[in-house]
Design goal:
Blueprint: E1 2-3, E2 6-7, H1 24-32, H2 36-59, H3 67-70, E3 73-75, E4 81-83, H4 84-87, E5 89-94, E6 97-101, H5 109-118, E7 126-128, E8 131-135, H6 141-177, H7 181-215
Antiparallel strand pairs: 1-2, 3-4, 5-6, 6-8, 7-8
Keywords: Protein biosynthesis
GO molecular function, one term: ribosomal large subunit binding
Protein name: Ribosome-recycling factor, mitochondrial
């Protein structure tokens, strides 16, 4: 059935994702058939899931990842947020110490220090002139539990928020394009089922990473 140049699957061919025993994404594609709204949502949610995987790998890494410091946002006195790497030179002084040089932006060091203190790193940076020395958090049992807790909190919430934004985007597009109310309801249900299924996948992925971290020998 074509509506305003858009091809949408007939209601009889649409089934809830949870009815399929196979993988969520495969089920969504099978259920959507020619439904471009669900297909579009699937593609974007897969991208968000990939970003979640990368974020978890970085979050749970036992190695020093300078991107954690480089990507940290610093709110300067005159307003506006800047990535740490844009206002200071981040480098690894030793396996247990990160060095950030603010020779090019000495006035930013105060605000950078504050950003680090307020971050999830739970460390106290030391200032020497225009340089900040940031101790790398020891991977103690308590530190591992803290990382696991943070993943279950902010990282998961950010992931769910991104999925919800995609759902809202394609639900709005379908409302604007589909005039048949039965088809509209089926499309909305598919999008909702997809969002919930992807949320569950995210929770399972985070739980797996958390268990791996907490069972490793310190």
């Amino acid at each position: 059935l074509r509506l305003q140049g858009t091809t949408v699957a007939k209601p009889a061919k649409l089934r809830k994702i949870r009815d399929y025993p196979s993988s969520v994404l495969h089920s969504a594609l099978a259920a959507s058939e020619n439904n471009i709204f669900v297909q579009g949502a699937v593609n974007e949610m897969k991208e968000v899931e990939a970003v979640l995987g990368e974020e978890l790998t970085r979050h749970f890494s036992l190695q020093v990842d300078l991107r954690v410091y480089e990507d940290m946002l610093v709110k300067l006195e005159k307003g506006g947020e800047h990535r740490m790497s844009s206002i200071g030179r981040v480098s690894l002084k030793s396996p247990v110490m990160v060095m950030i040089n603010f020779a090019d932006n000495p006035t930013a060091i105060k605000w950078a220090k504050l950003a680090i203190q307020k971050s999830h790193l739970s460390v106290t940076p030391q200032q020497e002139g225009v340089v900040l020395y940031v101790p790398v958090p020891r991977m103690t049992r308590e530190r591992r539990e803290q990382l696991a807790h943070e993943a279950k909190g902010k990282i998961l919430n950010d992931y769910k928020r991104a999925l919800n934004d995609i759902y809202t985007q394609f639900e709005k597009k379908s409302n604007q394009s589909i005039t048949n109310q039965d088809e509209l309801r089926h499309t909305r249900q598919l999008l909702l089922d997809l969002k919930h299924a992807m949320e569950k996948r995210g929770v399972e992925l985070i739980d797996t990473k958390r268990k791996e971290l907490l069972t490793e020998i310190v």
